Each structure stands twice: as C-alpha cells, then as structure tokens.
Amino acid sequence: MAKLKKGSVFTLVGLYVLTIPFFNTLNVTAYDNSQILGHFGASTTVFTYSSYIPAFAMLAFLPLALIVAKQIPLRTMILSVSFLAILFNTASLYTTSIQWFTVWRSLLSIISIIGIFATMIPIILKYNPAFNMAIMYGIMQFILQGSQHIYKYLGTNFTSLYDWTFSIYFLNFNFFIGIVLAWIFYKKDVAPMKSVFQFDWRGWFLMILSFTVILFLCAEGQTRNWFSDPKISISVAFLLIIIGIYLLHARFTKEPLINPDVYRYKNVVFGSFLFFYTGVMNGTGSIVSGYMTNVLGFDTLYQARTHLALLIGIFIAIPLSTYLLYKRIYIATIWITGFTCFGLYHTLIFFRFYPEISPSDFFLPFIIKGLAIGFLYPASALYIAEGIPKNLGDSRMMSGVIARVILATLLGGAILGTMISNANIHHKTGLSQQLSPTNQLAENQLNQSKTVYLRKGLSEKEAQKMAEKNLSNQTSQAAILLAYKDIYLVLSAICFLPVLIILLFRLGRRPLGRVELEPIPI
C-alpha cells in the first residue's frame, strides 16, 4: 500500500465521486413511476415498455461504450457526456409524450454507460498498482451498491417534497458537479488506453436483436400468459435461432463480441450461474415492495427507508468481505456466509406475510439482505474474472451482465410476476370454494358485516351485496399473502441449497487466484 500513500487521497475520493451520477441515472427516479404514469396518461402496457427500454438500451450499448471510452481523451469525454446527460435529462422534463420521454431516458442511459467506463479508467490506471484487485473490486461494489440505495432514498423524498421533476433537477446538479470535478482532476486531456478501434458490429447487431426479443418477453409475457400465446412461442423460437446464428458468426470471427472460448474456463461457467443465482435471490425485493404498498398500505417514504436498512448491511459486509478476500480467505467461507444471509432474509420475510404487521419488523430482514449482497457481489465479480486472459475480458463481462441483469433481474422478474399471479389465483379459488353455508365461520362473518351495513341504513339487498364484497376482499388479501409465502418459502430453500452443496462436495476450499481484469461496472 506504499504507492497509495504517496498519492492523493483527495484525488482518489474525487475520482470515485465522479462515477456516482453515471451509475444512478435510472435509480434516482425509481419511485416516480406512478407520478410519471399519471403525468403522461399512458396505458399500462406502454408504460411497461417505457420502463424497460432505457435499461435495455444501457445494456445493449455496454460493449461499444467500453471501446469508445478508451478512444477519446478523458477530460473531453467526461465533459461531453456530462453536458449531454444534462441536455437529455432536461429534455425529458419538457416532452409531451411518453414515447419521447422514453427516447430521452434511453439516450441518457447510453451516455451514462460511456461515463461509467470513462471515469473508471483513471482509477484503474492510477490506483490499481497500489491496490490488491480484491480491494479494487470491493471499492467499486461499495460505491455502486451504496450509491444506488442512497439515490433511491433521496429520489423518493424529493418526489414527496415536490414531484417527480425534482429528481431530474437533482440529477442535473450531480452532473454539473461532475463537470467541475473533471476540470479539477483531469489535468491532461489524453486517452491513455487508446488502441486500434476494432469492434464486432455484426455480433453487436445480433445481440441487440436478441435483447429486443427478450424486451418483448419481459413486457408482454405475463399479460399474454407466456406459452399459451403463439407470439410468445414464436419469439422464443426466434431467440434460439438468433443464438444459433451468433454461435456460427463467432466461429468464423476473429474477435467476436462474446467469445464462446471464455466458457472453457470453469469459473466463467459457474460464475455466470452465480451471477444469475444472486440476481434471482435479490430480485424478490419487488414482492415485499408490492406487499407494503398494496396490502399493508405503507407510504412510499417508509418504503424508501428500507434502503437505509440495506445500506447498513452493505456498509458492514462489503468492507469485511473485501478484507477477507484480500487476506486470501477460502472462497467457500464467503459463499456460505452470503447464501446463509439470503436464506435468513427470505425465511424472516416468510413469517412477515400477515396483516397489521409493524413497519419496524422489516428492518432486521433488510439489514440481513444487505449483508448477503455485500458478501456475494464482490466475491462473484472477482471469481468470474479469476485467471481470465485480457482478450476474453469483455466476453467475461458480458456473460456476467447477461446472466444477472438480463436473465435474472429483467426476464426473471417478469416470470416471477406470473408465478405470483398464478399462485394467487390458485389460492383465491381454493378459499372461495370454502365460502359456503357449511363454513360456519365465513357465514358468521358475512352476517356480522351485513348487520353493520343494515345499521348504516342500507337496504337488505345492498347490505348483502356489500357484505359479500367485504368477504371477497378479505379472501383476496389472504390469497395474495399465501402466494407471497409460497414464493419466499421456495426461495428460502433455494438460498440454503448452495450451502449444503458447498459443504457436501467441499467446493471453494481455496483462496481466489490471480485477477487482472477490470471490475464489472454494472
């Protein structure tokens, strides 16, 4: 660490702060959806596409952004993307249609991914010699995971104080700070990692085509009930054809976008599965968010405070796991700790699915979830890069991103919504069948409700109708709680399963090997 002490800690902090707004262009408006939907008056389907498209645009542009960020002098790059980010962000305020709003948000996402890579380059070049790669990855995950929850918390509070536009102004202020920091820290306008520009345009087109199909599946799969709709079946078949064409393309291309040779390394195969696994486990947070809003009636300000609970866990776990990885602890120790925390989180939430629960009961589970993220995310990002040659670095990065973000978070989230809907219908049907005169408890409750409505002056017919509606609402609430319980019970078992496998087969009983690739910036 001697080289680090000779450098400026102030410069290091400033360079990391410069990355934060680019990481969070979509996070700061994460809780503005209802206001934005009301502002534009778009249909639910259109708004669903509007929510997905900027994320897919960012991910689709990721491999090209990595190349572009290395070709242009850094100060010019940072100033340009910061200015364009302010321009695109401001334009989204004054658009009159959801379509143009989506266009501006997508352009902002694309610009941001270039900014992420551009701001990472000087950190990697200047401080990587002073850092063990475990520390480099740990710091990047600390900044990424920590800042996203802070931005979501602040964005919700800003929305509550004013409206959804306040978050846009806040983000513009962040990019303005980025412009100031760029003038301070980028003294020389050079491109230190510039090389001959080579890019797999055909492979990129095929990747965008496959992302378009997955976007359609995410947005339309649940409403079309998946494979019961012929368009979904055709889309999946088309996706498989695209993958086949890409494999053929990669076979005869010198430097393909995602080189299949990267899967000859076992840690990339298992690491991609680990990325997918953690993405699925982390993605169930949307269930709790819906439970808080639709069943318990919590306001958005309380939901935003759950991000503070996650931050506590993250701020404890990431420095600790980074230190343990730096001290070359066994990989299995980190994995077991992380999976156990995820299992405890899902188990604790399983017992929170009942009406009238107190908000404070969610605090501990979310801290434990933050611990799980802090232990598994840096370790998985390091593990998938272990021993991979630099010419396969981009392939390793795209493999991890597709596994965790595209397949687990986006597509997996859409499938999870369908599973909840189907489980809800199943339980509601079962509970409704019990609402008969032979069910004395239900009959007594119906009569009590009917008596209450009669005392309020309703007619016999109206009181009967309102009592039946009230009982039906209670049945619906009980059904959705049972559906949530089903999902979290299954996830609890899925989270603890890797712990048993690691212990039984004695996996990961070694420290991490050599890592030379840059951190995955997503």
Could you give the topology of this structure?
Blueprint: H1 2-6, H2 9-23, H3 33-40, H4 44-71, H5 74-94, H6 98-127, H7 133-161, H8 164-185, H9 201-220, H10 230-251, H11 266-283, H12 285-295, H13 300-326, H14 331-350, H15 363-383, H16 393-433, H17 440-455, H18 460-505
Helix pairs in contact: 2-6, 2-7, 2-8, 4-6, 4-9, 4-16, 5-6, 5-8, 7-8, 7-13, 7-15, 9-10, 9-16, 11-15, 11-16, 13-15, 14-15, 14-18, 16-18, 17-18
Descriptive tags:
522 residues; globular; single chain; Growth Hormone, Chain: A; 77% helix
How would you explain this protein's 3D organization?
With 522 residues, the chain is an all-alpha fold. The chain folds into 2 domains: 1-199, MFS general substrate transporter like domains (Growth Hormone, Chain: A), CATH 1.20.1250; 255-522, MFS general substrate transporter like domains (Growth Hormone, Chain: A). It contains 18 helices and no strands. It is globular. It starts with a helix and ends in a 17-residue tail after the last helix. The mean pLDDT is 84.
Say which CATH homologous superfamily of the largest domain is assigned: MFS general substrate transporter like domains
Using only CA atoms, what is the Rg? 25 Å
How would the global form be characterised?
Answer: globular
Helix content: over 70%
Low-confidence parts, pLDDT < 50 over ≥5 residues? none
User: Helix count?
Assistant: 18
Alpha-carbon distance between the two ends: 27 Å
- DSSP strand count: 0
- Total count of domains: 2
